[in-house]
Amino acid sequence: MLKGAHTILYSKDADADRAFLQDVLGLSHVDAGGGWLIFALPPSEIAVHPHDTGGTQELYFMVDSIDAFVVEMGKHDVACSDVHDEMWGRLVQVTLPGGGQLGVYEPKHALAHG
Question: pTM value?
Answer without folding.
Answer: 0.87
